[in-house]
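Journal club prep — side note

Before the paper discussion, L.F. wants everyone to see what a predicted structure for a comparable chain looks like in token form. Sequence:
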Amino acid sequence: MRLTVVQVLPALEAGGVERGSVEVARALVENGHRAIVVSAGGRLVPALQAAGAEHVTLDVGRKSVFTLRQVNPLARLLRDAGAHILHARSRLPAWIGVLALRQLGAQAPRLLTTVHGPYSVNPYSAVMLRGERIIAISEFIRDYILAGYPRTDPGRIRVIPRGVSAQEFPHGYQPPAGWRERWEREFPALRGKMLLTLPARVTRWKGQEDFIDLVGLLRARGTDVHGLIVGAIEPRRRGFFNELQVRAKTRELASHVSFLGHRDDVREIMALSAVVLSLARIPEAFGRTALESLSLGVPVVGYDHGGTKEILAPIFPRGLVEPGAIMAAADRIGEILRQPPLIPAQHPFPLQRMLDETLAVYAETAGQRA
């Protein structure tokens, strides 16, 4: 059966949700299905279209009463496309989707949802539990669903961890000479430095404050490290970004911590790093960058909770430290720098597994139509 699957999410920028949506759309097309993604657009739209999928621009994620205007266009799209599955990946787009489905009655496609994070438990977030099938991206998220919404039938939940392609993130990868030359021209002061990298958008819970303190602690011990904070700085986070700059300056680390903002070469930066950090204060739903780093063969030190724990435990358990334990993290990094460990070339989170299991849930859900 050739399926038409419509994924709906706020935008197609650079986050894990967005990249996963493009990967699933590509897999649908490769397997002979029709893939449509509805969002406000973004930098990943060209990659989506290059994969043979379609993009429809609807601003379904803007937190405004005017977003309700997108209900009718989405309903028309679902009807005209003959959609079998509406896959909602975020709360407000899910609400717009639910309202659109109501307009279509018996002709409505099946609703599938993916819970990408431990949202606040309330009626607004509960829309993510309306899917006939609910994908949880980790065991941590499955536990969150059942604890926060105990009336949810566990039989509707499918745990599908995110995956990483060994072709995109090959073990032992080294950036090409041309990239290195551009990197050294852009950041000449980093040449020869031991780099610690925190790949995470700049937001209060992602651990940038702990990271700055960690760099300071290591340098105080005589370890010549340089910290890289790699991630988008959104306009509404400018105040926190300024706090981070002040924090680095008051600790005399302004020349030892670099804020790189959004980068399209995070893979190369991680491959160049001695250690990658995962220091989210709130448990990560999955922690994709930690897995990408380990796939490259680069060690990760991360807090022992949430998705980060699920990734590191079977691959590199030595990298786990108690949440907030800066001293322990510094000790672990010191050990790694003195004797770099061998990271296994194989891991239990391949991209193909995620894609196969997601397409199987699509087929399972669409089969309920009969």
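L.F.'s comment for the group: The chain has two domains: 4-163+351-369, 177-338. Keep this in mind when we get to the figures.
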